[in-house]
Structure formats: structure tokens, C-alpha cells
């Protein structure tokens, strides 16, 4: 007599094998239990998929593609301290308008290729004015410039 036949003869009625309920009860769900929706409690925030993210362009060498690094804060699994987590995404840049260091917003779209499912969109500035291009001048004349100006005056 094998073990399986001995278990079939017991019909799994032992409480340690199937808990305190019988299998017939589990195979036919009660209609009152099936009607109850499995909604989370109302005081918890609703979880939604992230459709847009912000990040910094780290590579813009490919044609119509930029690599964007998105930084987020997540709790450490053991120590519960918030840790920076970085992830790189490939995003579609149809006009090749972004350079390395630009901040962009990634909008979710249909898959464009095997690795690209986002479209890079420029972030509107907070002040509403376009960002000035820095010339690199501090406004303070250098000593070499002062000496050249004095020689020209003399």
C-alpha cells in the first residue's frame, strides 16, 4: 500500500493537512464571499502607476535617443533610512534638442523600440522665463586684462 493511497483513504480530513476547513468548503466559494469587492480601506492612498518622471540627461550621443538618470528616494529594507536610488532610462528625443546635464521630464508612451518607452519633454522653468546661457564671465576684470588695458591707454 503506497502513501498516496493511504492519504486518499483519509480524504485529507486531518486538521494539520488542510487547516480547520474541509476541501469541499474551499472548492465551492460561498456566494456572499464572492460578492464582496476586494477594495483597500478608504484611509489608504490609492496606488497609481508612475506615468511621468523627471531626471537628468547623462548621454546624448545616439540619434533621437537620450539616456536619462532618474533619482528617487526609497526606504532601505533593513535600516528604514531613505536611500537614493538611481536608474537609467532610454527616452525618445525626436529633434535631438537635449544635451548632457539638461533636466527633462519623461512621459510614458507606447514602446518605441526594445528599450525606449518614454518621450523626453523639456521641463518648463518655475519662474516662467527661459534659462539664460552663462557666458562664463564673473564680471570681475582679471589682472591680465587690466594690464592690457593700461598698456593700450599709455
From TrEMBL:
PROSITE patterns: RIBOSOMAL_S17. InterPro entries: NA-bd_OB-fold, Ribosomal_uS17, Ribosomal_uS17_bact/chlr, Ribosomal_uS17_CS. This is Small ribosomal subunit protein uS17c. One of its GO terms (cellular component) is ribonucleoprotein complex. It comes from Hibiscus trionum. GO terms for biological process: translation. Pfam families: Ribosomal_S17 (PF00366). Belongs to the universal ribosomal protein uS17 family.
Amino acid at each position: 500500500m503506497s502513501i498516496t493511497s493511504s492519504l486518499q483513504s483519509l480524504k485529507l480530513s486531518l486538521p494539520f493537512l488542510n487547516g480547520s476547513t474541509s476541501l469541499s468548503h474551499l472548492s465551492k466559494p460561498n456566494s456572499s464571499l464572492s460578492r464582496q469587492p476586494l477594495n483597500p480601506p478608504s484611509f489608504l492612498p490609492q496606488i497609481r502607476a508612475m506615468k511621468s518622471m523627471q531626471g537628468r540627461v547623462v548621454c546624448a550621443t545616439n540619434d533621437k535617443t537620450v539616456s536619462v538618470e532618474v533619482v528617487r528616494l526609497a526606504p532601505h529594507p533593513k535600516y528604514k533610512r531613505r536611500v537614493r536610488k538611481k536608474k537609467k532610462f532610454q527616452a525618445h528625443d525626436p529633434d535631438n534638442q537635449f544635451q548632457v546635464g539638461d533636466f527633462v521630464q519623461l512621459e510614458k508612451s507606447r514602446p518605441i523600440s526594445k528599450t525606449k518607452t518614454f518621450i523626453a519633454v523639456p521641463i518648463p522653468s518655475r519662474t516662467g522665463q527661459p534659462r539664460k546661457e552663462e557666458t562664463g564671465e564673473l564680471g570681475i576684470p582679471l589682472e591680465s586684462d587690466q594690464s592690457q588695458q593700461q598698456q593700450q591707454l599709455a
